[in-house]
Structure formats: structure tokens, C-alpha cells
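Exercise 3.2. Students should predict the tertiary structure of the chain below and write it as C-alpha cells, then compare their answer with the key that follows.

Predict this chain's 3D structure.
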Amino acid sequence: MEEFQLIEATYSVGEFHISFSRRRITQPFAPEAGEPEPTPVFAPATHTPEPPAPKGTPIVSPMGGIFYAAPSPGAPPFVKVGDEVTQGQIVGLIEAMKVFNEIPASTSGTVIELVAEPGQVVQIGETLLLVG
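Answer key:
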């Protein structure tokens, strides 16, 4: 980024996106006698707002891998928004190292939101869906 004097950069491949940004401070030059002292110039920092608090109980990924909402392509999803789930019920699959792992609901309730998209790479602790 420094070599090309970039402040922001984004790289995307398929569904994978990564962005970099940095704050850049311009150093003032030494003023000559009688000139007013220049003030430093700051580049605007990009601030990502905090996401709103979840409106339900999150069911999170116990491992990293690829999330699947259905048992096979073309099959109906394990759950949809509005479905009632019980604790222990399978709500999705995560493929890790060519092994499909069932993801059970950690709580009972109504599915409020499907957060993870089918085929999305998820990390440990990432919210898959919200139950209320």
C-alpha cells in the first residue's frame, strides 16, 4: 500500500472479499520565519459502525468451514424463517476437511433470521441463524 501510496484497497475472489485501509498523516513542513504554523492534515478514517444487537438467540458455528442450509443440493432447507426448532434439532451442516458436520440448535424457539448464506465460509463462533 505504501509503495503505490494507497489509503484503501479491496480484493475479491468469488464470495471472498477483503478490504484494507490505513489512516495517513501528512507531516507539516518547517515554516519559515514569520509564517504561521501549519496544522497537520489527517486523512478521514473509515469507521465501520457496530452491528445492531441480535434480535434473538444466536446459533453459532462450532467450527470453521462451509455452511450448508440443506442436506443436499435441491433438497429443502433444514429450517426456514418462521419455523419452530427444538434444542438438538439439526439446523444446518458445516463441511470441514471434506467431512459434513451436523449443526444442532442450541436452544428452542422460532427461527427469526437466517444469517449465514448457503455456501458461505464461516468461522468458529460466527452466527448462523437467530432463534427467538
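Discussion points: The first strand starts at residue 8 and ends at 13. Residues 57-131 form a domain with the OB fold (Dihydrolipoamide Acetyltransferase, E2P) fold (CATH 2.40.50.100).
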